[in-house]
Amino acid sequence: MGIFSRRQTAVAEPPPAVGSGGPGARVTAAGAALDPALRALTGHWTIDRPHSRIGFSVRHAMVTTVRGSFADYDSALYFDGARPAESRAELVIRVGSVDTGVEQRDGHLVGKDFFDVRRHPEMTFRSTSTVHDGGESFRMTGDLTIRGTTRSVDIQLDYLGSVMDPFGYERAGFDGTTTIDRRDWGLVYNQRLEAGGSMVSEKVRLQFDISAIRSTAPEHSPSASGIEFPRH
User: Is the pTM of this model over 0.85?
Assistant: First the structure.
């Protein structure tokens, strides 16, 4: 993600808004100034899986951290650089693609104790609102569904920059994080340690390291929630 330049995309300055604090300044509902360069990013995007990571981390036995990721998912992103509230995202993740680097552990995760992949093969995230927090930081709220249970989560989303890569693809980078209590989604399995505490922590940190590629509208088809998915 470090290859992105925060000022890679050049755009013309828009005319001053009435009552604005300076040329080209735009203010969101939260009152935070919005960088005019973000306007050029408005449009549909899709996550480039080979250069992205949808993952998680969790404490194990109170003293170490286990990290994993999901390799198989579909994505649809719409980013509005002038009106962040219009931005939206959808992820459909095949939980059977979980990879923690240990085959036995992955087998346990897809079983009934955790994801129960036979009954619930997918987990989904569908955004419901987006707020500009200032600078290049956004807060995206959405519905996260795991094992048939849906709860709202807030994702802290930071824009890293954009670039035209050597193959002609326009890319934009985002980092997103949120922490959830897995018990809220019915993931309650655990083992208690003799000295106190649990083998697997209830708190799970979700991580979205995103390299997104701009999509062309003619190659999209609508998803169930109305966001356009690119045809593969």
Answer: no
